[in-house]
Amino acid sequence: MNKLSFEARDGVAVLKLDNPPVNSLGHELREALVAGLERANADPAIQAIVLIGSGAGFSGGADIREFGTPKAAAYPDLRTVITEIEGSIKPVIAAIGGVCMGGGLELALACHYRVGAPGARIALPEVKLGLLPGAGGTQRLPRLLGVEPALNMIASGATIASEKLRDTPLFDAFADGDLLESALRFARRASAEGLEHKRVRDLKLDVPNAEAFFQFARNTVKAVAGPYPAPLACVEAVAAAVEKPFDLGLKQERELFTTLMLSPESAALRHVFQAERAASHILDVPDDTPVRPIAKVGVIGAGTMGGGITMSLINAGLPVVLLETKQDALDRGLANIRRNYQGALRKGTLNEASLAQRLALITPTLDYALLRDVDLCIEAVFESMEVKRQVFQTLDEVVRQGAILASNTSALNLDVIGLHFFSPANVMRLLEVVRGAKTAKDVLATAMRLSKTMGKIAVVSGVCDGFIGNRMLARYGAAAHDLIMTGALPQQVDAALQEFGMAMGPFRVGDLAGLDIGWALRKRRAAEFPGRDFSNVADDLCEAGRFGQKTGAGWYRYEAGSRHPIPDPKVTAIIEEYRRQKGITPRKVGSEEIVERCIYALVNEGARILEDGIAQRSSDIDLVYLNGYGFPAYRGGPMFFADQTGLHQVVRALKSIAAQPGSDVGAWTPAPLLARLAQQGQTFSGFKGTA
Ligand code: NAD
């Protein structure tokens, strides 16, 4: 397919990028661009050249699928195309509408003139992939916008509306009507008036007090960049634009780019980027499967989850019928929803008028009859099979034929599609779409579409205890508890895992969620399976009235009104007593051992989940952990982390833990898939399923 069209329009060559969906600058398009330029320059009838994009806009930048493949560097690479444009004998005019990002913007910056259009979205978002613009963006943008605005764009990756840049030297003209016509007019004028080629590289960049400015920028950026090296590298690249001649600045930009490209942080962020795109494809459901229209949704239960789910839906503009059994529960639910919006009102991200509009989308009711015309019903009532069964029985009677019934259950197998939201549902991006034995393909496709409408990341999970996330969490929690038994204290385990990058250690999470839930569950299990030991030191904390933050004490203690965890000698005493009762002699446990046990417990269970076909691909498991459980993005998720570490190393560590006296051998023995991949020198990423 031809990725570029060439049309001569009254002495102007129009080179139209045609590589849907966003005209990414893949190898074929780059070749076509160079050929188009050569043709235009060789044709005596052509006086000027206009570059314009078809479809979504100018260009979304590099083709990320080429990263790390020979195609990325294959002649002509982006920098070569840029050199060709800048050196073109005839003036090149970029006509910028729609998306103009990354390499796309770098291409435009190399043109001699730029004509903008309203509504274009301008960005250098490379930093979000742990990179910096590596084709001159850090050298050219400051020459047009000034150092500070350019650095802000480069180090944040933020998207700026073209209207905001309309009066800057980035644009030589701004289209009022048709972009191409405006660009053609500009091109004809440029050639008629013999305008000189304006090369951005030739612009002078004078910055008074540059040294002080960059020192300030380094300090500021360092403070917010955390473990990510890219933002600081952006500062260095822009500093080079000021301090060095253009070509040496370019060279430094290149060196910084190459270093970042090889960094584990960038590899992880690029993995996450691709994982998010892969997750929406379901292996046996074609992408063009027709979806059922969802114009109105019923939510059953206005508790913690029902309220958050309702907010996610109305935020996306979907009307919701919110049903409860009692008026006071309904009132409470609505009051909670209103209260949850207060933060957004205070921050100014939402105003009273749009809040009123959103709330008006909710029809609160106690009457099932109002659910007659909904297209989807999401159940979020108490976690009880009996209650849920009754709800679905009633729903079956009232909702119309073809409406989708879904449950937010965390554990029950209900034979309807599961839409497992995470708390707080209006905030958390993760949605596990649980595929039952009888879930129709179009229902799955509809759920995936709905998730996109709500701005969530959906991951398909098969049915099993805990689905993907909580099934792994159970192993992680058990590993953390084992460490306490072995000799560690909660604060030590939390500190080690937070140092690794987890948003919060498991014991802090326990205090936040409430320890009484697990306590009640273990009591139920113990009654169900007499003779089995479900005991946990948390039971003793609960016996002492320590349910977590809500009682001011759990694994930690809390000052009134504060969420700051304070290690508590009383907890140490409870733990020591518990160990004594179990006949355990504690030993010293190091941070490395803590991280290894907890993270490899996740990996081992992830391998089982993958082998069982519960998850479609290892990157889906990563997304679950990144978006639902606070796993650090710069490590790419547990499965990617294991791949990077080397699976043989993971296997060796697991085997050594399994061999220790008192270990749960079944849990710590490497999963068969993990053992096999390690032996073959393979990775989880390369695993394409057992079928
Ligand atoms: P909750 O107790 O806060 O809310 C349940 C609500 O359902 C209550 O308001 C109750 O009045 C209402 N209700 C009970 N029976 C009803 C009926 N027959 N008809 C209509 N409404 C009824 O509970 P929650 O935390 O929101 O959990 C709800 C579901 O979501 C459970 O299945 C739970 O496992 C699941 N879930 C919870 C979380 C979480 O973190 N809390 C996360 C994911 C999934």
3D structure, described in words:
The chain is of the alpha/beta class. The protein is 49% helix and 11% strand. An 8-stranded mixed sheet has the order 12-11-10-13-14-15-16-17, with helices on both faces. A 6-stranded mixed sheet has the order 1-2-3-4-6-9, sandwiched between helices. The protein has a 3-stranded mixed sheet with strand order 5-7-8. A hairpin with an 8-residue loop joins strand 15 (417-421) and strand 16 (430-435). Helix 5 packs across helix 10 (230-243) and helix 13 (304-315) packs across helix 14. It starts with a strand and ends in a 12-residue tail after the last helix. Bound molecules: nicotinamide-adenine-dinucleotide.
What descriptors fit this protein?
691 residues; alpha/beta; 8-stranded mixed sheet; 6-stranded mixed sheet; 30 helices; 17 strands; 49% helix; 11% strand; binds nicotinamide-adenine-dinucleotide
Can you lay out the helices and strands and say which pair or pack?
Elements lengths: L3 E6 L2 E6 L9 H16 L5 E6 L16 H4 L4 H9 L5 E5 L2 E3 L1 H8 L2 E4 L4 E3 L13 H9 L1 H10 L3 E2 H4 L7 E2 L4 H14 L17 H16 L4 H14 L2 H16 L2 H16 L17 E4 L3 H12 L4 E4 L3 H14 L1 H6 L4 H8 L2 E4 L10 E4 L5 H14 L5 E4 L9 E5 L8 E6 L5 H13 L3 E6 L6 H18 L3 H11 L5 H8 L1 H14 L8 H7 L25 H13 L9 H21 L6 H11 L9 H8 L1 H12 L6 H4 L3 H8 L12
Parallel strand pairs: 2-3, 3-4, 4-6, 5-7, 6-9, 10-11, 10-13, 11-12, 13-14, 14-15, 16-17
Antiparallel strand pairs: 1-2, 7-8, 15-16
Helix pairs in contact: 1-3, 3-4, 5-6, 5-10, 6-10, 9-10, 10-11, 12-26, 13-14, 19-25, 20-25, 22-23, 25-28, 28-30
The protein binds nicotinamide-adenine-dinucleotide.
Nicotinamide-adenine-dinucleotide binds next to helix 13, helix 14, helix 17 and strand 15.
